[in-house]
């Protein structure tokens, strides 16, 4: 039984607490949060202790920590926890600053402790089935990948201001999905973004609608579409065109009921947002982490994966600002040792 | 070029006129109708003559007649036309009276002239693809056939009164579809019917909603559901469960547009009624008739097929009235010579 | 926290153990099974005790029992448990013998203890959404209900021999679904059945493919199709045609991936069987039971519901044997007091 | 009855001949083709004359010409025909050279004769239904348009060499679709292209897979994906995300049959190529042309529309070569008078 310390008791922390608690081989031992009421409420629900992050990291009886705190604390906590000998599952992104993330990766790597980055969508059974089909060569060689990823409603402008921007905060999931499916990083990233949904998002320096095109050394192309608002729900679709066919992962619907009337044929909407859509993925993610820790095997998503997606987000941000394609090397080389 | 006489210039006659005229090997030469304005209007559209049915049948330059007159004239016209040496395509049903239909079949058979019955659905490309898959053994042995056939809106009560009833007028298409797909007649027919849509239909001695179950000598079962009203359009679906799979022919929709809003995901309705749904089938039916006439080969749907479907309708009518299953032999034996 | 005794540690018992254990207000306290290894294994998984059914029922610290034993013990256990003051959730069917089930219902009713029958499909969110739409009058007045319910593979012939037959063992779920959706019992039941899948099932006195048609006092019709074998998975669909539209609950698929190749467009199969398809329904069923016990409110599915579905199964069995419709009153009146 | 001269008797010429001939208000009078056998064969089928293009244009009894000749003759023929007082329907693209196309537009405009460009997809009933829904404000303000347009198989390399390249030959349809749906031209066009399907296409200076992103003055974005090979058929889908919903025009399938077996649930492929997919659109296009000529009203697709799409193709070509976004003004200003 792994004893787990959960750092961060916000919305996503609660999702992880549930997965930790339901797993037969892990136990939620302690919870920390800057807002002590949040920590206490969550800890109480699972008969866990409320402690500071420092205490949890220092406690040798804690086997692993799950970092679900604000992004600007991720790197420090990853470093502290790995130095204290803990296995770590950290929410995405690793950091908003690529250089800082790379430094963190180096330090964590030096400790030899396993660190997994929380790209939950890799564990969604639908995307996993898609990847399995592609890996089994059922559609031949990949040629054109398309990812559609729309949130149901835009976040508050105050959130936008600290989010690092759409590319680092939201599209980072899609960058990782491209890396996961294609098993390869792009050469160049070309982005356009706009604040067509809410001009205040634009005034805050961010975009709410964006399209990114990526090119690869072997000629394949990937395109990612993001919107902060799809009033019909959380739109999460992936298409991969190959030399011998097309794979599509379609939306998951709220239910299977179809109503036909004089007004048309009406089906259910996609599940509303990530908690509904990806709860099974969060469970599977946690299970994969526990399995890897117990087996001492490689983490299924690494800190390198987290850095790669962040570098693509950085390149996209620069491309949207400059209006020209940005090479991944332009972004990575200056910060590499 | 086959010269064609069209007997009957009503709604279905107009459909056939178009198919006859569009076909490169047939020409609409003459049109008759009890309502002379209808005949003249249709004839004018296609540069054809307006004549009486008797004249058309007597005209040796006419190669074939298409009978689209009221049902109670079908048998007489089939007999007259075949005796006059014409090929015949006759709309369903052959007759409302089974004994009369069987007599007509005998007389037509004695003339040696080819007669085809207009079960247009056999020529729908979707049902044809379904049959091809079944015949290619793609789902193994047939076990359970289900036909859903709903009209968009009930006919007038005055039509109902002369229609011969739902089983002979509407479900006869589905009886023939069962025969076409399964290649076999049932042993017994069990029907329930109700006038839940419109009590006036019940007062007129007919039903507007009905379910018929049929059993076969090799153990398979078929079930047909009819409703005179599906407010969302013409619902035409067939499912065949076999030992190795299921075949479904689904509805054809008005268009391929899907609209997702906060209210749900809305697709198009099925095409409204048989003219929209089966126009291609009517064209293919006519083409098959022309081909068979030209080649001197067997008709793709025979008068025997028309009699078989009528016998099933008769059995269903009796079953709905008596509340017990009716053997097809009970219906056929007393009228067989 | 309700302390629960689970009687029966077979396949369905394990499903319930999981739901009991996951619920925050119930605790699996004790498990019994005629096969002691089964009981011990399951009890060990949930830190519960292994005891005899009699001991569990006699233990005043146990609040409720869940009966998941062989059908021929249900009535006795319901009577014993309710007499011992326990709330009961009993798997379907109540009994194979209608008279015995009615006697049990009377005895349980006299104790005043709440008894719920495990018609899990009522708690499936898809069927629940369908019912909610119908109850909200979104398709008007019900006219024609169709239920398709196919198992992926037939059970062993040895199981068939003790199952009570397809109508009591399998279609009983569909009878209850009809009662749930329509809120009304039929007047007459007409059944045809065949052993087209496996002749040994026929030799064992049962059928493996069946169609039942039911008529109602207000003219509506219901039809249920059952097959013991659909090689593509567990096919569970419901359609309700109303005066203003059609509601369909479609299958739940294994995943949302679609693969298009030169061979066609291939989607996932339906989830394989009831454990996958209805796990959420079992959880919701248990939650509804706990809520009703805690609130002292009416059970969401009653012993009367269990008897009604059994009576319909009895009528269907007699109809399939006699070849004529059987009135529900023919079945119920002789055994009513 | 409009007398029509058809210039060009190749594959697309034959499609138009059929539409011209089926229309009740137009008659195919004469056909020309550089390959005289092609002209004769087609003319013979429709009882038309075979003549030279010059003769047809000079014949005052011909009311309109349909230009379906090789692209490099389009501008000259448009000019000649309009100067001769004829109405013109010309296949896309107007020209491969933007400057030439603009000059042609000016000359044709000076004659006052109506010229329509053959962007047939505007007349597809599915895209038309999508536009009608958007124009009726059913999804609010447009934010993100996505067009997927894949051919089933790449053309021969010899065709590629004279085609003007994927952007002018294939994606030009999608540029026009964007203009049609959004009613607005983009500011900037950003393209990536690759020859991942066939390196010989790359050696011929063209691409076979491409993604184009376009930005608009009001912030909306459009993305077009093209591939020369989708082995499952002609993939033609459009999605428009708006402030209040999403519109999707999905593929049209070969038939409505679905087969479920142990291997999965298999549906029909999209119709194979443009002849099958857009035959109805070609008919509707011709009908719209005839209506506009007869009414003397504005052409539903103008030469200006043809020039706009060509300018976007030119911008995309330059962007793919230079690796930077190209403003539409960069392309249009230098050639504007």
Could you characterize what this model shows?
Four copies of one chain form a homotetramer. Chain A contains 13 helices and 15 strands. With 337 residues, the first copy, chain A, is an alpha/beta fold. In chain A, helix 9 packs across helix 12. In chain A, the strands form three sheets. In chain A, strands 12-11-7-10-9-8-15 form a seven-stranded mixed beta sheet. The longest helix of chain A has 22 residues, at 274-295. Chain A has two domains: 2-118, Rossmann fold (3-Layer(aba) Sandwich), CATH 3.40.50.720; 122-279 and 308-336, 2-Layer Sandwich (Dihydrodipicolinate Reductase, domain 2), CATH 3.30.360.10. In chain A, strand 13 (257-261) and strand 14 form a beta hairpin. The mean pLDDT of chain A is 96. Chain A binds chain D through residues 141, 143-144, 146, 148, 150, 190, 192, 194-197, 209-211, 213, 215, 218-221, 223, 225, 227, 229-232, 235, 241, 243-246, 323-325, and chain D through 141, 143-144, 146, 148, 150, 190, 192, 194-197, 209-211, 213, 215, 218-221, 223, 225, 227, 229-232, 235, 241, 243-246, 323-325. Strand 13 of chain A pairs antiparallel with strand 12 of chain C, so a sheet runs across the interface.
